[in-house]
Write a structure and sequence with these properties.
The protein is mostly helical. Among the domains are: 2-57, no CATH class; 132-220. It contains seven helices and four strands, in the order αββββαααααα. The protein has helices spanning 2-9, 77-85, 95-113, 132-151, 154-185, 190-201, 214-220; strands spanning 13-14, 31-32, 37-43, 52-57. The longest helix is centred in the last third of the chain and has 32 residues, at 154-185. The two termini are 57 Å apart.
Length: 221
């Protein structure tokens, strides 16, 4: 009774009146608010100790529209002329000849419209002290920065700024721990230690640097 009074106070309607369980309890409900529910029936499908409840309800059709952006591909006059004039057919071509001619022609047109360009891609080697933990913190920082740019809320900006400080501290600690372990492991190898010290004092132009991008990121925020 308390449950029924609660539904009534919220202007909800309970449509199931009989038992929906094989022990005679009403455990499965259909409750609506502002909808016309009709033709309610219960069926015993024998695959469960609960009855199946079927009903009909009229729902308004969705008026939401989805916009799609299509990019047009501009074909120049040279490519258009190639597509019209580049399929010569012999008097009695075989299937293999037709396929080869077709593939060769399309490849030539594609090379004219979008010729192959070779780009040299260089990958910056990750610092040896850059661990899974610091990598995760870097990813989390990018997520916080993206969230702040989208929301424009100061609380997100402060959270991102605090994370940058934590990330910078973690990098310094990871770097110190790496070189401490390296020194302890090779403390009896002075040549290796002096070579390592020389790399720290006189790094090569291609050596990885400690860069968290805090200054320019804060200015761009």
């Amino acid at each position: 009774l308390e449950f029924l009074r609660l539904l009534d106070s919220l202007d909800y309607i309970l449509h199931v009146k009989g038992a929906t369980h094989n022990h005679g309890h009403t455990l499965d409900l259909v409750i609506s608010c502002g909808l016309a529910v009709k033709n309610i029936i219960t069926l015993d499908l024998t695959i469960s100790d609960h009855l199946a409840i079927l009903f009909e309800v009229n729902l308004p059709a969705s008026t939401k529209t989805v916009d799609h952006t299509f990019k047009s591909q501009v074909i120049n006059s040279t490519a258009a002329k190639l597509s019209d004039d580049s399929l010569p057919l012999s008097e009695s071509p075989s299937v293999d000849e037709l396929v080869n001619t077709y593939n060769t022609t399309l490849t030539g047109i594609l090379d004219t419209v979008a010729p192959i360009k070779t780009l040299r891609v260089s990958f910056k080697k990750s610092s040896p002290w850059f661990s899974d933990t610091t990598h995760k913190m870097k990813y989390e920082g990018r997520e916080l920065e993206r969230r702040g740019r989208e929301s424009k809320l100061r609380v997100h900006y402060i959270t991102w700024k605090e994370h940058l400080g934590q990330y910078g501290t973690a990098l310094v600690l990871a770097r110190s721990s790496y070189y401490y372990d390296l020194t302890e492991t090779n403390k009896n190898n002075p040549r290796f230690l002096f070579a390592t010290l020389d790399k720290l004092i006189n790094p090569s132009p291609n050596s990885p640097t400690l860069d968290i991008g805090a200054s320019h990121s804060c200015n761009d925020f």
